[in-house]
Amino acid sequence: MRRLILLGATGSIGTQTLDLLEKDDAFSLVGIAIGHRKSAIPSLIKRFPSIEAVSLLDKDNIEELQGLFPKVRFYFGEDGASRLANETQYDEAVNAIVGFAGLLPSIEVLSKGKVLHLANKESLVVGGQLIGRLIKEKGGRIYPIDSEHAAIAKCLSSIDRKDIDKVILTASGGPFRLMSRMALNGITPAMALAHPTWKMGNKITIDSATMMNKGFEVMEACYLFDIEPEDIDIFIHPQSLVHSGIRLKDGSYILDYGKADMHGPIAYSLSHGEKIEGIRKVSSLDELKDCDFMAYDPARFPAVGLAIDSFKQKGNRGAALNGANEMAVSLFLEGKLPFKEIEKVLEEVLKKIPFDPASTYPLLASYDSLARQEAKAFGN
Ligand code: NAD
Ligand code: MG
Fold first, then answer.
1. CB within 6 Å of ligand 1 — which residues?
2. pLDDT value at residue 61
3. What separation in angstroms does the CA of 318 have from each of 67, 72, 91, 124, 151?
C-alpha cells in the first residue's frame, strides 16, 4: 500500500480525491492538511482511521481535538502543512491547497524526492524554476491533476514528440466570454462565481472568468512538459468536453474528450497515468456535434498575455503576478474592487515591482508579500 498525504483535504479537489481514496485500497491516507474548516476534522479521521497527522491553520481548540484523537499528531499555523510534509512518513502527496500557500509544501515533498500529485498550479506559476531544479536534484516526480494537463499528458503518452505540431489548450472562457470589456461594468461576485461548466473553489472560478487561470495553465504546461508558450494554441471551448490535446504535424488532432468531472484527472494522476476504468461517466459522441472551438482574443483577456510574459522573463515575475492576482481576487470578492479592474491591478503591480532573476523560496515569498501589499492599495 502507498502511504499518501492530502494537502487541502476539505476543498473541491480535496473532497473529490477523498471520494476516490475511499474506494481504492492501493493507498493508505496518513496525513491531511486543511485551512480553516476545523469542524470537518473529526469526521475525516473517523472516515480514514489511517490518518496519523493533521494540519490546520487555527490553533483555537486544538487541545480539544488532541484530546479526542490522542494518537494523531496535530500541526497548526501557516507552516503546518509543510511541517507535516516534512515530518510524516509517506510515499506520495496530493497538493490541493489553493494559492501561494501551496508552494512550500510542494517544495517539501519534492525535496524528499517523492511523487507529487499537483493540483496547486500556483506552485509552478511562482516557483517553476525552483521546482525544476529540485526534481533534477532529488529525483521526485509530478503528476498533474489539472484537467488540461492530465489530458495533454495522456495524449503525449501515445505519440512521438517529434510528430507534434502544437499543444492545444482548451478554455471554457468563463461566464463572460461573450461580453466585451466595455460590458463588464457591474459584475458582482455572485455573477462571476457562477461558472458555466465546472464547480470549483472560489479563487480558481474568478481566475476562470478573467482567464488568468488559462494564463497560469500556459505557465504550468511549459514547466511540466518542457515547452514554450509559442508551442501552445489556446481555444475557447465553452462546453468543456474536450480537455486539451495535441495537433500533429500531419494535420490531425489527438484530443481528450469526456465529461467535465475532476474525478477523471485525479484518478489518472493517482494511478501514475494508467487509464483506469469506471471513474468518468461516459459521454456519447453525439455530444461532440455541439462542441464549439474559437480562437481567444488576447485584448479581451489580457491576463493570459501577462502570464506568458512572466513565464518568459522568469525570476520573480510569477511571484509578482500571482501575489497581485490573489489580492485582486480577494478584493473583488469582498466588494472592494470592480471585476473589470482586476487585470489593471496586475499590470500596475508588475510595473512597480522590478525584475529580479532570483528564484529561491525566501525571495519568492518576499515578492509575493510585496505584490499583495501593492495590489491592496487599489482596493477601496
Ligand atoms: P478550494 O478553495 O475548494 O480548496 C482549497 C483547500 O486548501 C481547502 O481544503 C482549504 O482549507 C485549503 N487551504 C487553503 N489555504 C490553506 C493554507 N494556507 N494551508 C493549508 N490548507 C489551506 O480550492 P480548489 O478549487 O480545490 O483548488 C485547489 C487547487 O487546485 C488550486 O490551486 C486550483 O487552481 C487547483 N485546481 C482546482 C480545480 C477544481 O476543479 N477545483 C481544477 C484544476 C486545478
Ligand atoms: Mg484547468
1. 8-14, 33-35, 37, 57, 81, 96-98, 101, 119-122, 146, 198, 200-201, 204, 262
2. 79
3. 42, 37, 29, 9, 24
